[in-house]
Amino acid sequence: MAEHAIPQNIMEYEFKLFAGLTWKQFIYAAIGGVLTFIIFQLTLGKKIPAIFGWPLLFITAAATLALTFFTYEKRSLDQWIQDYLRAMSIPLIRVWKKDYKPVKYDPERRYKPETFPDYLSVYFKKEVEISSAHKKVEHTLKQIQQPKVININPSNYTQFSTINIKIPETPNTVAFRLVSNNQPVEGVVARLYDINNKELRALKSTPHGIIYFNKPLNNGTYRIVFNHPKIRFPEVHITFQNNTYPLFNIVGEQNG
């Protein structure tokens, strides 16, 4: 038995008359066809000069075909025209919410924080394995004083990565897991700067506390600053030399 899609809103469903045309498409085709035929006859009878008749005939036929068959993003041409006229004629409506805090613009920070792309999540271990590993990370790092700046390079990176989680084997990329009190921290904004203190990228951590700069960087040293309203994380200075790094665990402390 053939399968047929069930319309979600029956009031918006347009029934087909014949030849796959809706009633609206049929009206456009009928009116446009009649106008095209009339212009054609008038042009042949020289009642309309040929210099005007043939271009008018072409425009009428093209408009008829476009209104009858043209669709873009599941919307017909007449719907696009209606939406355009509505947008041009109706003024914008703004709502004032006095309880909202004003947005502060920082001209030096031109990059909007992005979120971790979902398709890259397959490269990390499952949530159960991650949560069990948090306790080991916290226990190890509580035994030493948390530094304000962590310097990572190809010769010492193993001391900052107690758990080897596989990430895409792409040189000059880096991933972090941000944790505090045995829990991943969501919403941490990580800003990456080059040696000239120019901001290159900004990312926001996922619900699992993951931040992954997946676009390869040039060789050199970079600075990564983590911002969170309640938790303080150490700054990271990392050096790339066409090498790959495992996932790094960065532990934060509550402010105050």
Written overview of the protein:
This protein is of the alpha+beta class. The chain has 2 domains: 78 residues; 141 residues, Immunoglobulin-like, CATH 2.60.40.10. The chain has 4 helices and 16 strands. The chain has a 6-stranded mixed β-sheet with strand order 5-10-9-12-14-6, with no helix packed on it. Strands 7, 8, 11 and 15 form a 4-stranded mixed β-sheet that branches. It has a two-stranded antiparallel sheet with strand order 1-2. Helix 1 runs antiparallel to helix 2. The longest helix has 22 residues. The radius of gyration is 31 Å and the shape is elongated. About 6% of the residues have low confidence.
In short:
The chain is of the alpha+beta class. The chain contains four helices and 16 strands. Strands 5-10-9-12-14-6 form a six-stranded mixed β-sheet, with no helix packed on it.
